[in-house]
Amino acid sequence: MKKILLLSDTHSYIDNQILKHAKAADEVWHAGDIGDLAVTDALKKVAPLRAVFGNIDDHEIRKEFPLNNRFICEGVDVLITHIGGYPGRYSPAIREELRANPPKLFICGHSHILKVMPDKKLKLLHMNPGAIGKHGFHKARTMLRFTVDQGKIDNLEVIEMKR
């Protein structure tokens, strides 16, 4: 079993509260718009990190992290990208891959809106952790925490912080 901390849209912001939650995780997953490599460097010091770049990320971040990150974690096929859309309205850049070979868990960021919803047609779970950074229109900063174990995603919790 692995405890996962899922975050997105840090926009160069990292603080001790975020790092405290990261330390309690077995892995941290970042769904893009990192903003500054200091964010991912700080996260990597406390837990293994998997990340993708987002639309605001510069060439340095794009050299370090991919556009899409697909991997298996504890028997769960995971696909992370930054701009992914939602079930029934996926981004054209990822739509065909999702239809041809759907993962069990599809993660994206970008919207700054926390959503967790099933895609019954593709038989996957969609997660967007919202935004944990301070830049953007969101009223609350959010992340997700959950476990993956033997092909199952469980113990999902929303972590909400004030702006």
TrEMBL record:
SUPFAM superfamilies: Metallo-dependent phosphatases (SSF56300). One of its GO terms (molecular function) is metal ion binding. InterPro entries: Calcineurin-like_PHP_lpxH, Metallo-depent_PP-like, Phosphodiesterase_MJ0936/Vps29. Pfam families: Metallophos_2 (PF12850). The keyword Disulfide bond does not apply. Residues 3-150 form the Calcineurin-like phosphoesterase domain. The keyword Metal-binding applies. Keywords: Metal-binding. It is an enzyme of class 3 (hydrolase). Its cofactor is a divalent metal cation. Its EC number is 3.1.4.-. Belongs to the metallophosphoesterase superfamily. YfcE family. This is Phosphoesterase. It comes from Leeuwenhoekiella palythoae. The lineage of its organism: Bacteria, Pseudomonadati, Bacteroidota, Flavobacteriia, Flavobacteriales.
